[in-house]
Amino acid sequence: ISKYQFMEMNLQRRMAGLKDKIPEIQKTLDTVRFLKLRKDETEPIETTFELNETLYSRANIPATSEVYIWLGANVMLSYTTDEAETLLSSKLATANTSLSHCEEDLDFLREQITTMEVATARVYNWEVVQKRKDKAGEEVTKGQSGEKTGPSKN
């Protein structure tokens, strides 16, 4: 049971990571699509962006056909908006697929844990019944041999 519970814990952690990552990928994809739509406009976009958790700055973003995507592990790459949209769409689809697989695996593990717990409880209950039968059999044997097993009714 502990192995199943360990696997369940790992899947829950993985799901939590995916649930955090999916909205971030979606937001980035939406931004790339927005920039792609505004590519032909001459007027820059004025925006406020986060520098730190509590520090923001304003910027004017000219029309662009190139974006930089942070891939993690100290890696940032330049992509055209078309390439970025394709990349982010595939990453989003992969993350959603992975999340659904995690949910299925987690459901299966929960069923297995429940089955194991029920089987363990049944074995334990059977053992208790057997011990009671054995004890009752010993008392009957002692009673037939003439030994007193309980208080007398004199």
TrEMBL record:
<protein>
    <recommendedName>
        <fullName>Prefoldin subunit 3</fullName>
    </recommendedName>
</protein>
<dbReference type="InterPro" id="IPR016655">
    <property type="entry name" value="PFD3"/>
</dbReference>
<comment type="similarity">
    <text>Belongs to the prefoldin subunit alpha family.</text>
</comment>
<dbReference type="InterPro" id="IPR009053">
    <property type="entry name" value="Prefoldin"/>
</dbReference>
<dbReference type="GO" id="GO:0016272">
    <property type="term" value="C:prefoldin complex"/>
</dbReference>
<dbReference type="GO" id="GO:0005737">
    <property type="term" value="C:cytoplasm"/>
</dbReference>
<dbReference type="GO" id="GO:0006457">
    <property type="term" value="P:protein folding"/>
</dbReference>
<feature type="compositionally biased region" description="Polar residues">
    <location>
        <begin position="142"/>
        <end position="154"/>
    </location>
</feature>
<dbReference type="GO" id="GO:0015631">
    <property type="term" value="F:tubulin binding"/>
</dbReference>
<dbReference type="GO" id="GO:0007021">
    <property type="term" value="P:tubulin complex assembly"/>
</dbReference>
<keyword id="KW-0143">Chaperone</keyword>
<dbReference type="Pfam" id="PF02996">
    <property type="entry name" value="Prefoldin"/>
</dbReference>
<dbReference type="GO" id="GO:0007017">
    <property type="term" value="P:microtubule-based process"/>
</dbReference>
<dbReference type="InterPro" id="IPR004127">
    <property type="entry name" value="Prefoldin_subunit_alpha"/>
</dbReference>
<feature type="region of interest" description="Disordered">
    <location>
        <begin position="133"/>
        <end position="154"/>
    </location>
</feature>
